[in-house]
Every structure is written in structure tokens, then in C-alpha cells.
Design brief:
This protein is mainly α. It is built from 3 helices and no strands. Helix 1 packs across helix 2 (29-39).
Length: 62
């Protein structure tokens, strides 16, 4: 999943996921792929957030 990402983008993705896991988020593979899409600019954070189950929130994106 991380192939082709710069060290900075990998760090951004890892930090976003790690901080949210500490808050109780249990990301699926699809969630991680979506975070990568946002971090690389291929998707916007608003679309990602809109597709989360009701009441969930992910910090550190956008």
C-alpha cells in the first residue's frame, strides 16, 4: 500500500492512523487505502469523512 509514497507521505499516513487508533478507531484495509488517497491528493478529506459510519471522526486529514 505504501509503495511509491515519499517518506514524508508515509509519515503523514502513519501519524494520522496511529493518532486515531489511540482514540479508538479500528481502520480496515479500505480505510487505510482511503487515508493514503487523501494524503496523496487523489481524494479529498471531505469525501473520506462523508463515507465514515455515522458518528465516527478521523483527525489529521486534510
Amino acid at each position: 500500500m505504501f509503495v511509491g509514497l515519499s517518506a514524508e507521505k508515509r509519515r503523514t499516513v502513519n501519524n494520522a492512523i496511529a493518532s486515531n487508533v489511540l482514540e479508538g478507531w479500528e481502520p480496515s484495509r479500505a480505510d487505510v487505502e482511503a487515508v493514503i488517497e487523501v494524503a496523496t491528493g487523489r481524494a479529498c478529506a471531505e469525501d473520506f469523512m462523508a463515507n465514515l459510519p455515522h458518528g465516527e471522526e478521523v483527525r489529521g486529514l486534510g
